[in-house]
Amino acid sequence: MNMTIKRPWAWGATSGLLLLATMLPSTSFGATLDEVKSRGQLRCGVSDGLAGFSSPDSKGQWQGIDVDFCRAVAAAVLGDPSKVTFAPLTAKERFTALQSGEVDLLSRNTTWTASRDNSMGLTFAGVTFYDGQGMMVRKDLGISSAKELDGASVCVAAGTTTELNLADYFRANDMAYNAVSFDESDQTAAGFDSGRCDVLTSDSSQLAALRLQLSDPDSVVILPERISKEPLGPVVRQGDEQWMKVVRWTLYALLDAEESGITSDNVDQMRDSPKTPDDARLLGKDGNFGEQMGLSNDWAYNIIKQVGNYGELFERNVGADSPLELERGPNALWSDGGLQYGMPVR
Amino acid sequence: MLRPSISIPRRGRGPLWRDPAVRSLVFQVLLLATVLGIIAFLVHNTMANLEARGIRTGFDFLDYRAGFSISQTLIDYSSNASTYGRTFLVGLFNTLLVSALGIVAATIIGFLVGLARLSPNWLLARLAGAYVEIFRNIPLLLQILFWYFAVLRSLPSPRQSLSLLDGFFLNVRGLIMPAPELQPGFMATPLALVVAVVGTILLVVIARRHQAATGRRWPVLPLSLALLIGLPALVFWLTGAPLAWSVPELAGFNFRGGMQVLPELVALWMALSIYTAAFIAEIVRSGIQSVPRGQTEAARSLSLPGGLTLRRVIIPQAMRVMVPQVTSQYLNLIKNSSLATAIGYPDLVAVFAGTTLNQTGQAIEVMTMTMAVYLSISLIVSALMNLYNARMSLKER
Lengths: 346, 397
Hints:
The structure holds two protein chains of two kinds. In chain A, strands 10-9-11-8-12 form a five-stranded mixed β-sheet. Chain A has a three-stranded parallel β-sheet with strand order 4-1-5. A two-stranded antiparallel ribbon of chain A has the order 2-3. Chain A contains 15 helices and 14 strands. Residues 1-28 of chain A have low confidence and may be disordered. Chain A has two domains: 31-130 and 232-336, D-Maltodextrin-Binding Protein, domain 2, CATH 3.40.190.10; 132-230, Periplasmic binding protein-like II (D-Maltodextrin-Binding Protein, domain 2, 3-Layer(aba) Sandwich). In chain A, helix 4 packs across helix 10 and helix 4 (65-78) packs antiparallel against helix 14. Chain A is of the alpha/beta class. Chain A starts with a helix and ends in a 29-residue tail after the last helix. Chain A is globular and about 60 Å long. In chain A, 39% of the residues lie in helices and 16% in strands. Chain B has a domain at 49-156 and 262-396: MetI-like (MetI-like fold), CATH 1.10.3720. Helices cover 64% and strands 7% of the residues of chain B. Chain B has helices spanning 20-52, 84-117, 122-136, 140-154, 188-214, 220-238, 263-289, 293-301, 306-336, 348-360, 363-392, and strands at residues 162-164, 168-171, 174-177, 179-182, 243-246, 249-251, 254-256, 259-261. In chain B, the strands form three sheets. Chain B has a four-stranded antiparallel β-sheet with strand order 1-2-3-8. In chain B, a hairpin with a 2-residue loop joins strand 6 and strand 7 (254-256). Chain B is globular and about 75 Å long. The two termini of chain B are 54 Å apart. Classes of the chains: A alpha/beta, B alpha+beta. The interface between A and B is large, with 52 and 53 residues. Chain A: Residues 1-30 form the signal peptide. Chain A: Residues 264-287 are annotated as: Disordered. Chain A: It comes from Kushneria avicenniae. Chain A: Belongs to the bacterial solute-binding protein 3 family.
């Protein structure tokens, strides 16, 4: 091109600008807590629409257990659960969004696995929901066990652990199958509904939610087998211990509050006259446990008062008070025979 | 002796920066250094940051076992043993398949609709016009979803398949048909086909020379058809018909045996062809209208029939206008095929830049490879079309 010779200055100037542009924005990682505080907003990555976990309601307000966990972290850090900017992410986008600093926290029904914890620059802060992968089929197929699914077509969301478990399960049981992989969970449900697949597979909690999207929710049945362990939890960037601990202790505060019987209704009363020393420490009447984390001492009070305890979150979003009507199962407190266990505040 | 004082302009040995050649060289070297510097800076910066954040880098992951299944594989693939590198190839072939099918169909539909738009038949011209306006003005993604769910929902379940000749079944899972199973000795037939193709080309060349020399035309079309079909058929029969068919049968949930055309492939193919054909139709129309009317009149005054005028006079001239534009439509179609992921067709983006990316978390490597593939495919298609364009272009004598 002749242009190079005739107008070298323009090219020089352009490349200089480019160089400048690449050097200017470089997000620093490390002090997420300070960043969130100075911004006054928590940026939280959630699912792009999964009933019970994160989906906008008819008024455009985000609802769900993952969403409420974001609100709990905002309440702990900023004292106000409404100071959250939600970023709806697909399964494929989620990790990149967190790695690149687009969100501070990923609370998006994400399974805690070794490779995600160890090779992606991420850290899981805890488990908000113990789940297992299940399979849903139409009742009229007359099937009662996943072992009878040899040769079936299976609708599955692309890029999930579900996709891998599916392959493992059918291989382990020496069965053949056809996977039809869709980009979003809504599309898997639509594909299943149209008859493209015999089976819809996902985490069983998601199946309960997707079932409500079908044209006839009563025509299907969720098979009893749970073919995998799916511990779902919040994720943060690796290398920021302080922020990871804030997120982790937000979860413990939710669990401890339920165990002590502290709810959003009685939290004021409990703070004014704590029943046990544990309650006094949790609610900031005794010690400086909030300050040790870089928060205010009423961090847990703010969470419980404005968002509720773990049991309230569960019942409201996925439990008896919700359309999903899931049992507590493994998500019951350890004291009720479940797996949820909050570390003591002391 | 005094020479006449003619002043010969001496080549100036002024300062170097006055010399345009030197100057332009310096600037180009500087520019190149700057560009390389920026690239090196970006690569180094990225690597350092990934390292600092504990994110795995490198291309080792291509050798790891993938462990997920893919619904359409043109090459051997099993979720059990195949690697992530293999998923790349599987996705690539699926992308190439739908692109190639799409380009062929879009070209045929586009040409027909483009010609129909210029037809003197009022109804035909209006229908073609409506086709163009409808399909080029609706977003492609919506069209893909429409065809997918329209195709799917109108088809019956596997147990109530529409069947044809006891070998072809159409249902919500796609079109299931008998698959050829090659027996030893089959390779003679494709070889015969190659021989027939070479023979046909020779025939065409000789016929053309014959026509140039004598003005007589040979019946090239029937002769070449006979050669193309007859020779392979003869060889196939002589070698004892070494081909068996695997006929699909309903077993359990699905059909066993035979081969299956996925509804995702059909929906994507239809959407891409119909959408792109609308643009190609307009290019064909504008190309034909760009040929001056005098050419048609001249052909008519030589009493060339209408079809021959179109084939021999109008279209060759219109091609010069059309080829570059049609090329960019082909490139668009190839790139648009990446919308496949919306309906679960396992193309390169869905398989490799989707599942593989998410399972390995190595976004930079995966996206770089994927972009390089689209860039290479597009550049190859452009190069081929430019070659064709150079052959079609006006030979100035």
